[in-house]
Amino acid sequence: GENVEQHPSTLSVQEGDSAVIKCTYSDSASNYFPWYKQELGKGPQLIIDIRSNVGEKKDQRIAVTLNKTAKHFSLHITETQPEDSAVYFCAASKNSGNTPLVFGKGTRLSVIA
Amino acid sequence: NAGVTQTPKFQVLKTGQSMTLQCAQDMNHNSMYWYRQDPGMGLRLIYYSASEGTTDKGEVPNGYNVSRLNKREFSLRLESAAPSQTSVYFCASSEAPGHQETQYFGPGTRLLVL
């Protein structure tokens, strides 16, 4: 089955700097890659997703890139702010039957003011 | 809209006790999910329901049962709780069936089994 590895497990950046979180996946048939943000004491919330027919997607300060050949995808946050501090999860799935999302283990991002 | 609601927020059980975690959504979504979240393990799917009347096992279904009571409600039952089931449980829903739709998560239920 699919295996998703996520790095780093913790990341500290200064406010205003950029943050990058990387994920690799094992199943070349996977074609959907969402990113979820989980704030303390809350459930995860989708912040951006990408499908395998594109290589990059942006939404304001957040961008995701996908390299299908290398089977890895990354989340980029620019101009980080204290409210970006949270745990971020990547995930992958393939559009085959009822194959569920497989999540990475998460990255705890701390933005230091 | 309240979105996805879960009850209780926190529960302590003794080994062998049973309990049901409740989940409801008011977004008229077709699909609902139960996940568990353990430190350093990310989110793992326990069971899901693609539509009313259907349920399927996820990655870690052992020790759990589910009921899709109606379109709004999806409950998770622990028949005989074990310490290994200490975790934070999240319910989620999505508009359409399939695992490539945006999932909306509830606030979670923190369960401690002694």
Report on this model:
The complex is a heterodimer of chains A (113) and B (114). Helices cover 0% and strands 54% of the residues of chain A. Chain A has no helices and 11 strands. In chain A, strand 4 and strand 5 form a beta hairpin. The model of chain A has no long low-confidence stretch (mean pLDDT 94). Chain B has 114 residues and is an all-beta fold. In chain B, the strands form 2 sheets. In chain B, strands 2, 4, 5, 6, 9, 10 and 11 form a 7-stranded mixed beta sheet that branches. Chain B has a 4-stranded antiparallel beta sheet with strand order 1-3-8-7, with no helix packed on it. The model of chain B has no long low-confidence stretch (mean pLDDT 94). At the A-B interface, strand 4, strand 5 and strand 10 of A face strand 5 and strand 10 of B.
Give a brief rundown of this model.
With about 110 residues, chain A is an all-beta fold.
Q: What integer value in Å does the Rg of chain B equal?
A: 13 Å
Number of helices of chain B: 0
Distance between the termini of chain A: 41 Å
Number of strands of chain B: 11
> Which segments of chain B are poorly predicted (pLDDT under 50) over 5 or more consecutive residues?
none
The percentage helix of chain B is: under 10%
Oligomer: heterodimer
Biggest interface reads: A-B, 26 and 25 residues
Q: SSE string of chain B, helix = H, strand = E?
A: EEEEEEEEEEE
What is the distance, rounded to the nearest whole angstrom, between the alpha carbons of the first and last residues of chain B?
36 Å
User: What do the pLDDT scores of chain A average to?
Assistant: 94
